[in-house]
Every structure is written in structure tokens, then in C-alpha cells.
Amino acid sequence: MEKTTENILEIRDVSMIYGQVKALQNIDLTVRKGEWLAIMGPSGSGKTTMMNIIGCMDKPSSGSVILDGREISGMSSRALTEMRRDRIGLIFQQFHLISYLTALENVMVAQYYHSMIDEAEALQALERVGLKDRAKHLPHQLSGGEQQRVCIARALINYPRLILADEPTGNLDEANERIVLDLLRRLHAEGSTIIVVTHSPEVAEYAEKTIVLEHGRIARTTRNAD
Amino acid sequence: MTKRQMYMKMLLSSLLRRRSRMTVALLAIAIGATVLLGMTTICYDIPRQMGREFRSYGANMVFVAAGGETMLSLSDVDRAAALLPRESLVGVTPYRYKTVRSNMQPYTLVGTRFEQVRKTSPWWKVSGAWPTTGTEILIGSDVAEFARLSPGRTIAISGTNAKGARFSREMTILGVVRTGGVEDDFLFMDLTALEELAGDAGRVELAEVSVAMNAAGLSALSALIQREVPTIAPRLVKRVTQSETSVLSRLQALVYLVTLVVLVLTMICVATTMMTVVMERRKEIGLKKALGAENRSIVAEFLGEGVCLGLGGGLLGVAFGWLFAQTISVNVFGRAISFNIYLVPATLAASIIVTGAACLIPIRSATEVEPALVLRGE
Ligand SMILES: Nc1ncnc2c1ncn2[C@@H]1O[C@H](COP(=O)(O)OP(=O)(O)OP(=O)(O)O)[C@@H](O)[C@H]1O
Ligand SMILES: [Mg+2]
Asked: In which band, very low, low, confident or very high, does the pLDDT at B185 lie, cut at 50, 70 and 90?
């Protein structure tokens, strides 16, 4: 085992089978610390399924997943919750904010489940995504792009080892897509590991490596020259 | 901000900012608590109300002659009445029966003291007026109907006195009495006037006594009278004392049953509402789990909302229940209800427990929500 290049994620021969559907078949994948990986592929190819496994929200039918040095495929759901809480930051296509809490409170919810609540820090996170003056607004008072930025603030509040984004720009116009991608780029520059699922080749261009899934298998792997 | 403050903030925001569904649950709990508090208040108060009413109602002891005699002497009645505690003695009414004829028809004429009748038989319904002189008469409603008589008319009665001589007298009908009992077939006049007609005085068939006292006290008095005045056999009127307790306990059982049914209905309503709420909020629950919420956090949040609903509904129920009980008491018993303050915490506790219990199954299904669903566009 080589310890020189530190891997944050090692996936070995992972398959995911839903009844008859083979959503993932014999996947092997390694992600280094600080790497930015894009996952592409047609609809139904298994991208979200893979994110759920990496994000400790689902267990694979077979194979081994080592996240931050720990094997998660045999973990109890309680231990998975802990992994999720301590190591993963999630960004969704549909934003998923809690409708009855303000932007600031939505960020603090992540602190609440993680450890301590630090309002100043939560406000700082909102400032980073340019929404300090919208802290007291409810989600329905924010635009889609602003909601997604709140999601990003929430995803990074607990300093996760790994940021997972499933089509983060899928519901956004170009201007907001740019803002979100710039935010991700800043995070990456600061050393965060990012895995992003996308349909858009422009978004994938930001990543260092792109894998393309087809019918649950990795069809291609490409490295982007900077 | 501490975690506890954040918990309260999430709880209150959820309750206040997503009102519509919660209002249904709150209303259900409020209705349940209203019925619970109202009914238990009435149940608690009725025995006291009714006890007072029943005790001042009607005779609960009857004096008859001991040792196979048919008549007892009025002086013995007075001696026995003197043994009863003055402050609880409501009335003593002697009754003397005499068979008379009117228009060839036989009637039972009863001699009594009307001012005492009104104390020992307050339920008598008299249309017209009560007689005050010896020539005035009160007739039973069946007699009035049968003989087509009404107040203001006269009735001629005749009979034989103690010496075997015939008497007859024209009496003015002052009122018609209706009790639903044997009294409806009788004629009533003043005892002293009847004694004059009958030609002998100082003896009656029975005397009805009304004492404000419970069953145990009555038995003790009965024993005392038997010992001190052996010519009198006191009988406790079982009909009244028994009905007092059996009516009450049946009424209470009914009220408790109704309350139980309402509580079960409340629970079902709250449970289905909470189930819908959990279904509507699956995304939110999945999101919280994806953010790292443990099951006990999810349980604590939903149970917290349940307890708040229970408390809110309980408070509304206390207010409305008090109004409800007060209205019933004023309308039925004609007096304000005496309110037991301990029923307030009891009602609040009951509504919190009922709501909490109703939330158990919905909360269980909330913990079963998979975090994986948030990434899927379900
Ligand atoms: N819970 C499930 N039960 C059964 N089948 C499932 C389940 N989740 C996913 N699948 C199936 O697994 C396959 C992969 O689904 P997945 O959501 O990973 O696709 P995707 O690449 O994310 O597609 P899209 O681009 O449309 O989001 C699909 O055929 C889907 O129908
Ligand atoms: Mg998908």
C-alpha cells in the first residue's frame, strides 16, 4: 500500500443493485486529497447512486469503500451518520433548505447537528457566499441562486474533508452558475476535495479529472490539462 | 446561541411558520381537552350539587305504626321528630286517609298539613293554588280529568264518621296536583278539618320525614327512634337514597365513557395529522439526516412539537372547558360551578400525554426516512 499520495476515497469493485436494476457495476475509483473530480454520464447511469454511497447515505450491495481511511461498507447506520456529519458537505440540485428557517438558521442547523453553534461563524460563511445582508430571509424570499449559495455556506460550515455536489448548477442560470463555480473553485484552492456530478461539459472543465458513467460502469476517465 | 436555544428556535419556527396543518391538530387537542376538563369538572361538582338538591328533596324516612297497628298517634310523631337534629330536619308531614264518596264514586281523601307537604314533597306540581282553609281542597290530576273538575269549581263529598253518622260537605277546589304517582288519584285537605269531619283526632296512618343526612346517619337515627319511641317503626325511603347514588354513578360512568371516546378520537385525529405532517416533511427529515442528524434528534424535534401542541391545546381546552362546565352548571343547576384548580394541571398533563402517545407511530416512521432520498428528485 502506498502512503505517499494520500487518498481520501478508495472505491474497490463496488456494485449497487436495486432488485433487477444494476445501478453500479464493479466500480473502481480513487480520489486524492484536494482533488476535484467531475462525474458525468447520461440520465440513469448511476451518478446519484454513486454520490449516495460516497456520501455515506447508502451502503453498496458489494465491494469496499474506504473514506478518509475508514471502511464504510460494513458500518452501522449510526456510524454512517457520524461519518456524514463529520466529513461530508452536501450540495444538491434542488437546494433543500428548511423552509421555516432563515438563511442564517439553515446554516446553523448544520452546526447544531455537528457540534456547537457559532452564530458569528455562520454569518461569516454567509458573507463568503455574498449573502450576509440576506441572513434573516426565509428561503422563499431568496432567488434560486441565492438559495444554492446558502446551501454552499451550509455545506462548508463544518470544514468537511469532502464536498459532494449533485448537479449544483442544474437549476441555475448562467450568471448564478458562474458564481457557484467560482465559490467551488475558491474552496478547491483552499484545499477542499470536491466531487461534482454534472451534465454540463463547461462545469466539468473546472475539475482536474472527469469520469463518465454509462450503464453503471466507468466508460472513460479523462484528466484535464490546466 | 446554545444548542438548547437552537432547538427551541427550530421548534417554534416550525410551529409558527407552518401553521395550517398544525391548526387542525391543535383544534383537535383543544376540543378533547375542553370535553375532558368540562366533563370532569361537572362530574366532580354534580355529586355535591345533586346531593344538596336530593337531600333537600323529598322525604327520606317514613314513620308507620309498629307492631301491626294501622294508626300512630301524632304525639308519638312529635316525640320522634324531637329526636332528630333540628338543623337537618327539613319537614314532617302527617297523612291521614279516609274513604269518601262524591257523585256515587269512592275517593281517597287525605288529610295533611300543606305547609309541610311543600317541604317534604317539593316536586308536587300544583296548578291553581294550595288550600289554606278547611273548606278548600286539592284534587289529583287523574281525578280532575275523570270527574271533569277544575280549580274554582266545587266538589261535594260525603262519608261516615267515627260514630257511624253520615257527613257531607261542599268543598272549593283550589288546585290540581300532578306527581305522576298515586297522589294523582287522591283528594287532599287540611288535616284538622278532616279530623273534624271524621270525628276523631290525633291519629294518622303515616308521617313522611325529610332529614338532610346521608344513609349512615339515617340508619343511626332510625335505630334511635325505634329505641326511644317503640310505637313508631321508622322506614328509610330506599327509593330516594338509592336513586340518588345509582343515578349519579350511572351518569358519571356515562360521562367518563363519553370523555374516553372523545380522547380516543382526539388521539386518532392527532395521529393522522402528524402522520400527514411527517409525510409532507420527508424531504426535510431526509435533509436533516443527510446533515448528520441522529434519530434521537429527529425524535426530540417531533416529540417537542407534539408536546407544544399538547400544551397549547390543553390551555385552550382549560379555558373553553371551564366556560362549558360553567354554562352547563348555570343552565341545569342554576348556580355557578365550583372549580377544582387541580383539574388544570391534570388536563394539561392528559393532553400532553394523549398528544405524545398519538405522535409515537408518526415519529417512528419519521426515523425510518432514508437520507438517500434527498439526492433523488422524488
Ligand atoms: N431506490 C431505487 N430503487 C430502484 N431503482 C433505483 C433506485 N435508485 C436508483 N435506481 C435506479 O438506478 C439507476 C441509476 O439511478 P441514478 O439516480 O443513480 O441515476 P443518475 O445517473 O443520477 O440519473 P440522473 O442524471 O437522471 O439524475 C436508474 O436506473 C434508477 O432507476
Ligand atoms: Mg441523479
From this structure: very high
Parallel, antiparallel, or unpaired for β B206-211 and B89-102? antiparallel
pLDDT digits (tens, 9 = 90+) for B218-250: 889 999 999 999 999 998 875 454 556 667 778
Ligand nearest to C-alpha A92: 2
- The C-alpha cell that represents B64 in the structure block: 308507620
The residue of chain A nearest to residue B378, with distances taken between CA atoms, is: A94
Integer Cα distance of B116 and B129 in angstroms: 15
Measure CA B115 to chain center. 27
Distance A51 CA to ligand 1 centre (A): 11
For chain A, the domains span 34-57+75-223
- Which chain B residue has its CA at the smallest distance from A106's CA? B10
The answer to whether residue B9 neighbours chain A at the CB level (below 8 Å) is: yes
ipTM of this predicted structure = 0.92
Ligand 1 atom nearest to A51, measured from its CA: 18
Task: From B236, B264, B297, give the residue that closes a domain.
Answer: B236
User: CA-CA distance, B297 to A11, in Å (whole number)?
Assistant: 31
B229 and B333 part of one domain: no
Fold of A34-57+75-223: Rossmann fold (3.40.50)
Q: Which domain holds residue B132?
A: 59-236
Q: Is B99 in the same domain as B232?
A: yes
Lowest mean pLDDT across B10-24, B155-169, B194-208, B342-356: B10-24
In whole numbers, what is the pLDDT of chain B averaged over residues? 88
Q: Are residues B181 and B66 in the same domain?
A: yes
User: φ and ψ at B98, to 5 degrees?
Assistant: -145, 135
CA distance B234 to B225: 7
pTM of the model: 0.70
Classified as helix, coil or strand, B166 is: strand
Cell of A127: 458573507
